[in-house]
Amino acid sequence: MIARRAASLWFADALVLLAIAAWAYGASSLPQFVLPNPVTVARRLIALFTDAEFLVHTLASSVRVLASVLLALALGAGLALLARAVPILDGVVSGLLQPFLNAFPSIGWAILAAIWFAPGHLSIVFVQVAILTPFCLINVAEGLRQIDREMLEMARSFTRRRARVLARVTLPLLLPYLAGALRIAYGVAWKISLVAELLGSTSGLGFLMLRAQGSADITTVLAACLAIVALFYAGERLLLEPLARRFAAR
Fold this sequence. Notes:
mainly alpha, MetI-like fold, 10 helices, about 85% helix, globular
């Protein structure tokens, strides 16, 4: 098993090196404004995380993504728990609100935010929360459906306080589903952040890419895309995977 894992990692690394070599070869025969070489892009990528001018945009996107994910998780989980606690609202949440949020186009939220709000943090967070909420709602609602009802009945036999049952039984059982919702929302958030920032922001990696497009700066465009990949990978490895393992072990 260990040898197979090592071979898989070596193969993946070899594919990355091969892709970089192919990129360098292609860039050698094309103008810089069409396809810059990997070294030039790598230098700009480093600048995005070190140079003060670029770092402001990187941090702006990161903070907005994290805030949007947490807000969407709280909103989606709250709606799912509300529908569970008040059965009469289940039809509204699962039969009306959830399909509406699922079907509403992402670009529609971005356009509405550009009309309703001034360019800035609020408009970007609004778009991301509106798009991410149904992912969290579906995941948490499914988790609630999977909870053992007999365990809940047993908990209610010891106390009639709903808040106590929620805190001591329901939420601990929901932790794996909350972790799953968090991972899904985090991945989707980075995909939609650029679209939101293109239409309604004066900072962030999306705004940086829009400005770079206007000046035909393909180096910054590629570096911004790779910065998002690096940020997503770091968050996934350093935060989300340890959380998922911890919650799964409970």
